[in-house]
Amino acid sequence: AGSRVSRAPTNSGRNTKLLSRDIYVKALVDLLAGKGCRVPQAPNKMPDSPLGSQSNDSRIRRHCEALLSRVGNDPELGSPSHRLASLLLVEGLTDLQLREHDFTQVEATRGVWHSARAITLDRLFLPLSRVSIPPRVSVTIGVAGIGKTTLVRHFIRCWARGQVGKNFSLVLPLTFRDLNAYEKLSADKLIHSIFPNIGDSNLVVTAPDRVLLVLDGLDECKTPLEFSNTVACTDPKKEIQVDHLITNIIRGNLFPEISVWITSRPSAAGQVPGGLVDRMTEIRGLTEEEIKMCLEQIFPEDPTLLGQVLSQVKANRALYLMCTVPAFCRLTGLALGHLYHSTLPVPDPEPPLPQTLCELYSWYFRMALGGEGQDKGKVSPRIEQVAQGARKMVATLGRLAFHGLVKKKYVFYEQDMKAFGVDLALLQSALCSCLLQREDTLASSAAYCFTHLSLQEFVAAIYYYSASKRAIFDLFTESGMSWPRLGFLAHFRCAAQRATQAKDGRLDVFLRFLSGLLSPRVNALLAGSLLAQGEHQSYRAQAAEALQGLLRPDIAVCARAVNVLYCLHELQHTELACSVKEAMQSGTLAGLSGPPHRTALAYLLQLSEICSREASLSLCLSQSVLQSLLPQLLYCRSLRLDNNQFQDPVMELLGSVLSGKDCRIQNISCLFSLASTSLRGNSIGPQGAKALADALKINRTLTSLRYVAPLLASGEGPQNKALATGDTVEALGLQKNLIGPVGAQQMADALKQNRSLKELMFSSNTIGDGGAMALAEALKVNQGLENLDLQSNAVSNAGVAVLMRALCVNRTLSSLSLRENSISPEGAQALAQALCMNNTLKHLDLTANLLHDQGAQAIAVAVGENHSLTHLHLQWNFIQAGAARALGQALQLNRTLRTLDLQENAIGDEGASAVAAALKVNTALTALYLQVASIGTQGAQALGEALAVNRTLEILDLRGNDIGVAGAKALANALKLNSTLRRLNLQENSLGMDAAIYVAAALSENHGLHHINLQGNPIGESGARMISEAIKTNAPTCTVEM
């Protein structure tokens, strides 16, 4: 840790008086709260030292050593450091993640974590670009057992050694298991809990933005976070409920300048409003090679056993998918390893390998029980005694597990254990060590949790199975009182109904295990230890009937219904699924359209290896059947929907599926190619085709779409011929393929003949200048294309020059995107010439090129002459004040431009003033985007003066600047006069209480503003209250984000 801090030379001539613990903590809390308080510095502080004195360096070093002691020095089993060194950047949570059980998420996505971008651990808290800002609140999600806590510990190890997070002087790691021990807590006490043995110190963090607070395991928080009902608190000394403390920290009311990193299971992460999350990442699962590495760590000296286990994992597709989760992979390895060392009581040269989840966990339990005597099939008094003790312990833990599952509680403390009769002295037994893990918390109390969520569900199912045979009342009722329920089957039906009604799927796997305990193979495995020999026989058939009874005509084919098929599989009652599978293979699905068969089909679409490659649903689907299957179609790679007599409304539904974040479809054949879906012979018109085409603008997985006429594809001859002769398709999206210059040439040849295509989405295809030149030649001839997107295609000045010559003669193209290419000032000159001659182009997007001032000035001159352009995007083009002045002059002449985007360009106060001067006379511009444009007080004042007279601007975005109180006052005064501005973004502008006063006063007089964003500004509780009261009284239609 010494390598990551600077040592200041000692000054023997002076002695620094050490501060007491309380004084230190107060100073540190004040600093984190943004109050600017500083602990007195030692005179020997080095100017370039991030921490200050040598004494402080020593304290930080001891802090690092303490962290290393807590988290350990070595990576954990099954967690290759290179997997944790790179996370997936994701754009929020999907419906699947928010609503479904973790197992369902892995099964549905087939273990493939889909994201276009990754970020390394050392850049996790850094800006994504040179002009963006670091995230304040970061959330990392992952299913149970994926390695979230392992990731946090890995990060802390690396930070303490100076390998990552070098921009942080202090990392404060907390788990929700720690926080659950408190009812109320202040920010002050929070610091005490992080530094329990801080002693005397003058440790100082030079800036609170160099502090990282880690909150690990949001899903384990005992109280859900309710951001809408939490009262704001800015006093670090005030004790409030722990969940309120956390929400205030995340909101920025407390510690507004520190960075916050939250880890959570996906469903719990949904508690944090998306608007507060600056960056969301996801931990990917294990690859095939990493699964092998994980199993090698379990069997380091037995390659033969390793090979047997690995072969079994690869042979069972469902098992392999779940093994992408490290914790499940370890459990599987241990269970299968024990299996190959054991045999069933009945003679069998090779023990039957587990085919269901419950079988696998039964083998794990046999291992946990030690397997003593089970392989010989004998019963002795000692074995019976061991079995009886195990049954008693499992029953006690099972009751704890079940009630925890019902209450969504996954972490237990000593008081919980005692309340459910768990003998803490027996938790050291071999059985308990395989089921539970103990962890000391900062509150000096132990926390217990099952080693994996699925083990809690399995133990809960065993408890419910046993208890329901003698229970009189509903076991799900907390009070224990309900209408009488007699007999196991009555309780089984109750559990099935509860699981089906649970919207979040939390009882899905529990019900699978409960069903699996009734299977003959599981009974044979656990007979004599946890189950009675043969008792399943009296329940199995009726349980299967009860499960199938849940598939009623009025029940939609939803995830809960599909889970019923998983339960039937666990029960080894597979007749329904097998009949549908055979019908799919023989092409006779048309006769199987009842609710049970629809659900079985949905189950196969999600799980079957054959359906994952291609699901053939030709000649079998009506509109109602397809509509009921739409959620499951998300997870198919390839769909064939030939000859189903579909019409446009069905295609609109299918388009909605393709637009979903969860969509994994790659091929749809409707002679309208998009991964593998076939709709040949269907009655689909232009409206249906447009619905699919619109979905392609969003979808990131579909690569092939086939439609009756024309046939569209990504560049091969026959497909482009169909495009050339087609007369119905209006939009085609081929984003993020590998079309290249050759494919672009073929597409261009088709465009020379095509007269119907309006939109061509061609981004991220690496067509280069050669492809751009080919498309330019087509644009000289084609008179139908209106929207052309060439984003991220490595187009440089040469390609742009040819495109612009075509634009001089083309009279239909109205939107052109050249974002993220390599256009420099030379290419901008060609653009400018074209804009002077073209009178049809309305939208031009040049974001993220290399225009600089020279290129932007050339375009500005053209804007002054152009009479058609309405939207111009110049974001992130290294533009400065000179170009802004030129654009300001152009705006004084132009009468058509409605949107100007200059975000992430350092135009400064001078540039903002030039644009503001133009706004005083311009009567066309309605939207002006100046995010992160280095605008200060003077620029804001100039904009305020312009708003006082301008009557057309509706949107002004100034996020990420530094306008200050004076700038806010100028804008607020302008709002008193301006009646046309509708949206104002002042997010992250260092505005405090004084600014809030001005804004509140403005809202009292302005009745035109619909939305104002003040997030990321330390306006405080009082400022927020003033603004809220002003809105209620004078501007009830205005929405304020704070």
UniProtKB/TrEMBL annotation:
One GO location term (cellular component): cytoplasm
Stored PROSITE patterns: NACHT (PS50837)
Residue ranges of every copy of the NACHT domain listed in the record: 136-268
Primary subcellular site in the record, as a coarse category: cytoplasm
Keyword Lipid biosynthesis: no
Keywords assigned: ATP-binding, Cytoplasm, Leucine-rich repeat, Nucleotide-binding, Repeat
Stored Pfam families: LRR_6, NACHT, NLRC4_HD2, WHD_NOD2
Localization per record: Cytoplasm
One term of GO molecular function: ATP binding
Name of the protein described by the UniProt record: NLR family, CARD domain containing 3
Protein source organism: Peromyscus maniculatus bairdii
